Input
Amino acid sequence: MLRLFVLCALLLAGGSAAAQAVTVIKFSHVADVDTPRGRAALRFKDLVEQASRGRVRVDVYPNGVLYPESDELEALQLGAVQMLAPSLAKLALSGFREFELFDLPYLFADRQAVARVTQGAVGRSLLDRLESKGMVGLAYWDGGFKIVSSDRPVLMPNDFAGQRMRIHPSRVLDMQMRALGAIPQAMQAADVRAALENGLLDGTETTPAGFVARCWYERQHNVTVSNHGYVGYAVIVNKRFWDRLPAALRKIVERAMAEATTYADALTEQENRAALAWLARAGRVDVHVPSAAETAAWRRALLPVGADLASRIGKAVVIAATGEAEGRWQREGEMPLPRRR
Output
């Protein structure tokens, strides 16, 4: 009888310990807490922890406090963290050249065009390729379209001549600026303000929200709402962690990520609109919206960038993405790019 009692006690203790086991997701990113990425990461944390009833805990580390941008992908691959939200440009620089696609000038006409690619066959195919390096792509988070700022008005391509323009590190963006006659300066956002103050930069390209949040308007007095380029991010997880996660918990994470993505994209749109409205109202900078003729001139000047990109990542990928962005494949019922397994 005593042996039976001890056995039951041990079984109950074991069951209680198993019930109390908590899966921890370390979610590291380099954005500020109050940005759309930072707020979406916290929304994801709340959704997962509530839906899992404590079985999953999400520890969010913003501002690169755990790992800087230069080290975060390696940390994920080694399993030191389980989740990241790096820029698509960062993935392109880390051996996934196809992600350079998102830096192609004028690929997207609007947010609907972005969604057709990121939620379509091309976007899924690109995320699938991360698995070869021990990562799984869960979602794309929107960053918005770019504006150009400068010490002098930038209306036509020849206005870029000789200007030292800050870019994210990217071969495509480097070629973009050279095609416009500018001198590209690859630089992290945290270093831009000092470079502007010290006269090391003449201009920048970034999103409206980024421009206002970093107070670059204090050093730049001309803005062109060119919408020539796009900024985006991918939320990725360590593949070994993901494969070992029980199916029920994986579903919870996927549902929470879908909701957090909708939240992040809406915040991004809201903040970029608000930033443009503030710039127009505050009078700190001259805001120029290009005419159709000016936009056509920019497009012509940037044609070599598309040709160079197609030669490096494959013409088929560029054609497929362009078709998805334009909605061509939806109209014609074709699948432009098969998913890789």
User: Anything to note?
Assistant: The mean pLDDT is 91. The chain is about 50% helix and 15% strand.
